[in-house]
Design a protein that fits this description.
- A hairpin with a 4-residue loop joins strand 1 and strand 2.
- The protein contains eleven helices and two strands, in the order αββαααααααααα.
- The chain is an all-alpha fold.
- About 70% of the residues lie in helices and about 5% in strands.
Length: about 270
């Protein structure tokens, strides 16, 4: 067999160089450079706005507002009371934050389910969502409104523990009144750290709630969900959406804790 014939055997995987009488592997095609996630987020927002209008960017806002006020009131009240009761041992902020979040998350879980499922629906399907939700409750019982609660707790409880521990360490002394601006800055930093650490749990929670709406069957645990995602899509898939999550969570944490500390100081001086 000549060199040319040998090359022909592997013609699908090699480039034939006749002049040199040998086969040379074809250069692998270059993959398109991956855009930073923050750029992808901006492009996605633009596509949603073009396809659905500005209103599409606020899908699920109603359930979010219905959830946010009672959730925040319950959460901060429970944290302050638990923090006062636990005293000043090192892990007190983490314990109080985790316990307060368990209570608040369980109370508003149905609104969180509705918000996540609404955001996953196309615009034409959102109007009939209420009827679909009522049918689901009629078929599966009221407990179906808490589907995905386990995944939500796996995301929110570690987040709260990390957040309050970091926040109080950053401020040096949680009881010192050093102003709303300082509290807000500490809240941004602590929120960013906690959000990044708990992004895999957020991915698992979102998948569980979307699967519930699409009626894909089964109710895998959070860890099973995370293992499935990692096997099917690679470990990086567990950090999907980390950039937009940081952009949302970190400023929200700063604004929330800054406003809370300002309001506490204002009412205390009234």
């Amino acid at each position: 067999m000549t060199n040319f014939e040998r090359c022909g055997v592997g013609a699908r995987r090699a480039t034939v160089t006749v002049a040199l009488g040998r086969c040379e592997p074809a250069a692998a095609p270059r993959a398109a450079p991956r855009r930073p996630e923050i750029v992808e987020t901006a492009l996605l927002l633009g596509r949603i706005a073009r396809a659905e209008g500005a209103a599409g960017l606020y899908a699920g806002l109603g359930p979010t507002l219905a959830m946010a006020v009672p959730n925040t009131v319950l959460y901060f009240t429970a944290y302050d009371e638990l923090r006062r009761a636990l005293g000043d041992f090192a892990a007190a902020p983490a314990v109080a934050g985790a316990a307060a979040r368990c209570l608040a998350t369980a109370a508003v879980a149905p609104f969180e389910l509705a918000r996540t499922q609404l955001q996953a629906l196309p615009p034409e399907g959102r109007g009939a969502y209420g009827a679909a939700l009522r049918r689901t409750v009629a078929a599966r019982g009221a407990a179906s409104l808490w589907r995905g609660l386990g995944s939500t707790l796996w995301r929110d409880v570690p987040f709260s523990a990390c957040y309050w521990l970091a926040y109080e360490r950053l401020r040096g002394n949680a009881r010192r009144n050093d102003g709303a601006a300082a509290a807000g800055a500490a809240g941004v930093a602590a929120g960013a750290l906690a959000a990044l650490a708990t992004t895999p749990f957020d991915v698992a929670k979102t998948r569980a709630m979307v699967d519930a709406h699409l009626d894909r069957g089964g109710d895998p645990s959070t860890w099973e969900n995370m293992r499935t995602i990692a096997r099917a899509e690679g470990p990086r898939a567990l950090l999907a959406g980390a950039a937009p999550r940081l952009l949302k969570v970190a400023p929200a944490c700063g604004i929330m804790i800054g406003s809370y500390e300002y309001a506490k100081a204002a009412f205390a001086g009234a």
